[in-house]
């Protein structure tokens, strides 16, 4: 079954044509673009770049595979706007004028992603204080508040100067312009998961007393000015999205009430797709797990905990206020839940992540009627039984389980990028150790 048929047609079940799913309906965006269906491969960091943080043939190979996933929109993982502030030493980064070979690799990446009918957007980001020490021991952030995580993996940040803020806004705009020039259909400004823009939004990590700190209006200024700069750089007919936390789920952090207000301000901007997620490194709600600190619950409808998707009820309440299409990401597994979410008006698109690491064609099978649900291979993995599992009361064990599951996904992405099958026989601890070693090797090889 080829990718175009997956994107555009109903499948068969028991020899009979199935009813066309609402998930196969196209979505028209404010910029004039049309997405072929309601499924999106959500952003997952690829960590495949070489010493100069450039894309290469592995990115094209990986997205050639995901082009047949059945998803109508493919979001790349983090593409960083600053090489000193990477989420991982293997990130792609775009800083200043790019050499011809990197521009060619970016064009090959976007062409591969679009080869079977999907659109592709580049997620653009700055890691801020979530830059690991193997990349930068003294990163910048909104303020000098260090991540409360064990292991000394992240250094104490210093507050950005006003000049640095303006330079970073310009860097986001520059990367968006390069994305457009190299064949991508849009960009997503990453304002969630504790990265730099999210650090400015949260009163826990932003204690500034200038125009970028204090009130929510000031804390949101960096995001809103970045969106304006990106739109000015790419023009009106190019996709511009934002990824926003429903909440940080931390005491004194960015709340759902804050989220709703930021959405009201984004309504006045030229946004084509708003993705709702949640959490950060300290409270990884995006992974469906609790962090080492107590989770702060938010004022949302009581049905949240009964649903399989982590943030769908938050997305539904956002959609009641948002003027742009809304995407819900996190935890979706069954076709029934996805269809219910779209048909009931809770979200316009469904974001799918980790299941595409174990089975890159899973969404296509859902649309064709060959299967009813996706499986997340990494989520089944654990360090051991009982207190050695993901819900351990011992913080370090809980963290190793979470990082090991993520590490397996990274290794699966690497395998697909090299034309191999995801390594389903590999265990959690060995995945964790191999990924740690790979990151150390990439960090030592970085050329600055």
From TrEMBL:
User: A single GO molecular function, which one?
Assistant: FMN binding
Q: Which UniProt keywords apply?
A: Flavoprotein, Oxidoreductase
Q: Which domain of life is it from?
A: Bacteria
Q: Which CDD domains match?
A: OYE_like_2_FMN
- Matches recorded under Pfam families: Oxidored_FMN
Signal sequence coordinates: none
The record, for InterPro entries, names: Aldolase_TIM, NADH_flavin_oxidoreductase, OxRdtase_FMN_N
Keyword Oxidoreductase belongs to the record: yes
Q: Where is the NADH:flavin oxidoreductase/NADH oxidase N-terminal domain?
A: 26-366
Q: What is this protein called?
A: NADH:flavin oxidoreductase/NADH oxidase family protein
Origin organism of this chain? Henriciella algicola
Which lineage ranks, top first, belong to the organism behind this chain?
A: Bacteria, Pseudomonadati, Pseudomonadota, Alphaproteobacteria, Hyphomonadales
